[in-house]
Amino acid sequence: MTVVAKKYFNRLLGLGHKELLSRSVIVLSMTPPAGLTPREPAGVAERPLELRQLCRGIVAIPHSPYLAGAGEAELGGQDRELRDCYYVLAALVAQSFQAT
Question: pLDDT digit string (tens) for 18-56?
């Protein structure tokens, strides 16, 4: 998957979007536990440091049966690891907000 992510990064760089890429955040959707349909991460799971230099951050969101059930989700229903990952993601996104 790193090759695929690197290909997209290189394309953005080639189109002159280095600044846009430097502001991006990669979110990985991690593989569900054994016994469920395997799904590869959204990219860069093998060597995220290679791509980390090109973007603001990489956050790996663990598989959650709670969220896989669809519908509304409550923070209290998420386990600590999942909640912490979403807090990290929210912090990375919020860092790009302009102070008013």
Answer: 898 888 888 877 766 565 554 544 444 455 677 778 888
Q: What are the structure tokens assigned to 15, written together?
A: 């189109």
Q: How far apart are the first and last CA of the chain?
A: 39
Q: Within a domain: residue 18?
A: yes
CB 53 within 8 A of CB 23: no
Pick the closest to residue 6 from 39, 63, 46 (CA basis). 46
Name the token pair of 71.
Answer: 């519908």
At 33 the pLDDT is 56
CA distance 77 to 59: 20
Examine residue 48 and state whether it is found in any structural domain, yes or no: yes
Total domains in the fold of the chain: 1
2 pLDDT above the threshold of 90: no
User: Which positions ≥6 away from 2 have C-beta within 8 Å?
Assistant: 43, 44, 45, 46, 47, 50, 51
Rounded (5°) CA angle 42-43-48: 135
